[in-house]
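haha ok so turns out i had the wrong file open the whole time. this is the CORRECT one, sorry everyone. sequence first:
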Amino acid sequence: MFHMHFGISVPYRAWRKVIKSQSSCRFLRALVLHIWPEEEFIRKAVQFDQVRDKTNREPLTPRKTEALKRGYIQYLLHKREMKKVVNTKQEKKIRDQRINKFGRELGIIISHKRTKWFAEYAETKTDEETDTETDSETDSETDPEM
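then structure:
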């Protein structure tokens, strides 16, 4: 197991596979699935329509989010996209800017999952409506009182 942060670990074989990702966004997308089950990630990351008397979505677990960020930093160091030791304020600023892209890239992943989920949701809803209409037509044809 590869220990990431505060008891959050991923199988070492999975870590070796995701660390070889071609881009940091692909790395995060693959690593997210080792930290959260996909259904839990979508439930926590995607804000569904607010319904009266219901609470907002649960936030992503801060501890797991921090573990994901630390994994992201390890990826950047591994790919040499960021220096481990900085000597000047300019280098520190560049390093901090690169680390801060974590939030943006995680947002892209959430947006992708949201789009995918809503497309699947719309498809199932359309299928249900079609099934309901078909059932109604069948009922009216077989019911002599209608």
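The CA atoms of residues 36 and 63 lie 12 Å apart.
again sry for the mixup
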